[in-house]
Amino acid sequence: MDATDRALEQRIDELLAARSRSSSICPSEVARSLEPDDWRPLMEPARRAARRMVARGEVEITQNGNVVDPSTAKGPIRIRRPR
């Protein structure tokens, strides 16, 4: 893991902490908060950060409100605290 990976994980934690326990965030919010003008290159790293956090039991990845396997999730995802 490099400094960007650590920053992405930290930002996921910060964004989730600022929301209600039942709220979720989009990886694009994480990327935009770190690089507002050039956030698109951070989209896949943000998704990878979320997958690492899932592996540690810190977050869940959802699609359409349902928890999904992060290794097979395709398309838009949301990140939330485990319920």
Structural account:
It is built from three helices and four strands, in the order αβααβββ. The protein has helices at residues 3-17, 27-34, 43-55; strands at residues 24-25, 60-63, 66-67, 78-80. Helix 1 crosses helix 2 (27-34), helix 1 (3-17) packs across helix 3 and helix 2 crosses helix 3. It is globular. It starts with a helix and ends with a strand.
Poorly predicted residue ranges: none
Computed CA radius of gyration, to the nearest angstrom: 12 Å
Helix-strand string:
HEHHEEE
How far apart, in Å, are the first and last alpha carbons?
A: 27 Å
Largest sheet: 4 strands, antiparallel
Individual helix count:
3
Into which percentage range does the β-strand content fall? 5-15%
Describe the strand arrangement of the main beta sheet, using strand numbers.
1-4-2-3
State the total count of DSSP E strands.
4
Mean pLDDT: 95
Q: What is the approximate shape?
A: globular
Please bin the fraction of helical residues.
Answer: 40-55%
